[in-house]
Automatic annotation (TrEMBL):
Residues 2-187 form the UmuC domain. NCBIfam families: PRK03609.1. This is Y-family DNA polymerase. Belongs to the DNA polymerase type-Y family.
Length: 420
DNA sequence: TCTGGGGTCCTAGGACCC
DNA sequence: TCTGGGGTCCTAGGACCC
């Protein structure tokens, strides 16, 4: 059996934790640049706000009706997430952290020795009491079914936040009431395709022949069908699995024409990406940079420009990565466009051990490079001061908007909440 | 005025090999 | 009329996820 534990309206719940005065008030959290709605408290959901809706479209109405809004505060959410995951790991060491706010627990090793209902409520209560975040729990024979159970636990108040699907008959009955687009892994395109051949609910899908569906559509669908039938076949994404790519990209606070300012933004992202790469203990060989205009603005000429460069030896040196990113930018920049976003993608990783040696030239970052980067990271992590590279610039005219951010209550000594 | 960011996996098709 | 067969590897792009 698998349990899926998922925090309810996670970002909004994090904000509410530190603002007891907002209890029972609608609270939402916005994406970067205060662009879209990405988390809604139950009260905000009732007001009809939907996920991903542009903020400017709902702003007036929402605020007029007493809604509360926050810019995203990832430092806070990441810290709260760690606390939740630590508790879950204690309860079940076979844990697969799937995203910032949800995790699968593999309950197989418990066999029949636990009362699943008891287990679910223990989890739920402990996280509520120790951290302060409400969670929902779905337990079922496969991950796909656990996902569905979780969804029902969230949506139907009668279950009090926990749904356990065990009995075969019960599962069939349950699947019949589920639309296929609610199934994990079935997106919009697949929904349309399946609807067109008359498959509308999860029970119908589970009765389709997996092999045949696999060859007519794709293997992902085949796996999903098997999972719906109670046969686990979606692998764990082992927690220690190294990343395969690292991306840093941001929309700008306002659009940019100047090559110079663009260069600062790209350098800044490149520096951040290099930092992430070092924390992953990886080195990369391929660097891709892209710049683009705002696709929503129909009045301007659109551009999406990108290119990549391979570096001779795998590196995690910020200087090399920033320099390469700038060379790519030189190639892709076109005069006369308004750019609204830039990004960098690092890929082709080689773990620190086990390099491919190059025939000519050096194969490794030099000792000097390693030492320098370690020192820079040391200083930056501890915020003794903030070191950056000249290219990264100081103007920051492109930085994103985050006008209504809450405090970093748990990670900044100056921002710890005080009682009056 | 104003529309996020970071990932994974799969597939089709091209290049290349014998 | 008619132009092999079987493979691998790589990449770009699609679909999906939170």
């Amino acid at each position: 059996m698998y349990a899926l534990v998922d925090c309810n309206s996670f970002y909004a719940s994090c904000e509410k934790m530190f603002r007891p005065d907002l209890k029972n008030h609608p609270v939402i959290v916005l994406s970067n640049n205060d662009g879209c709605v990405i988390a809604r408290s139950p009260e905000a959901k009732k007001m009809g706000l939907s996920m991903g809706q542009p903020w400017y479209q709902v702003k007036k109405n929402y605020l007029d009706n007493g809604g509360i809004v926050f810019s995203s505060n990832y430092e806070l959410y990441a810290d709260i997430s760690n606390r939740v995951m630590n508790i879950l790991t204690e309860l079940c060491p076979e844990i697969d952290i799937y995203s910032i706010d949800e995790a699968f627990l593999n309950l197989h090793s418990y066999k029949n020795n636990i009362d699943l209902v008891q287990f679910a409520f223990d989890c739920k209560n402990r996280i509520r009491d120790w951290v302060g975040i409400p969670v929902s729990i779905g337990i079922a024979p496969t991950r796909t079914l656990a996902k569905l159970a979780n969804r029902v636990a969230k949506e139907d108040a009668r279950f009090d936040g926990a749904v356990i699907l065990e009995d075969k008959k019960m599962i069939c009955h349950f699947l019949e009431s589920v639309q296929i687009e609610k199934i994990w892994g079935i997106g919009k395109k697949m929904t349309d395709k399946l609807n067109s051949i008359g498959i509308r609910n999860a029970l119908q899908l589970s009765k389709a022949e997996p092999r045949l569906m696999g060859s007519n559509f794709n293997v992902l669908l085949e796996r999903t069908i098997r999972e719906l039938r109670g046969q686990p076949c979606i692998e764990t994404n082992n927690l220690s699995e190294p990343k395969k790519q690292i991306m840093v990209s941001r929309s700008f606070g306002k659009s940019i024409k100047s090559r110079e300012v663009l260069r600062e933004a790209v350098s800044f992202h490149a520096g951040r990406a290099a930092e992430k790469l070092r924390f992953e203990g990886q080195k990369c060989r391929l660097i891709t940079v892209f710049i683009r205009s705002n696709p929503f603005n129909k009045k301007i000429n659109q551009i999406y420009s990108s290119n990549f460069m391979e570096i001779a030896h795998a590196t995690s040196d910020s200087r090399i990565i920033i320099k390469t990113a700038n060379n790519i930018l030189q190639k892709i920049y076109r005069e006369g466009f308004e750019y609204s976003k830039a990004g960098i993608l690092l890929s082709n990783f080689t773990e620190k051990l086990g390099y491919q040696m190059t025939l000519f030239g050096k194969s490794f970052d030099s000792k000097e490079s390693e030492n320098l980067m370690r020192t820079v990271d040391y200083i930056n992590i501890r915020e003794i001061s903030y070191l950056f590279f000249g290219n990264q610039g100081y103007r920051n005219t492109w930085k994103m908007k985050r006008h209504i951010k809450s405090k970093r209550y748990t990670t900044k000594i100056e921002e710890i909440p005080l009682t009056k």
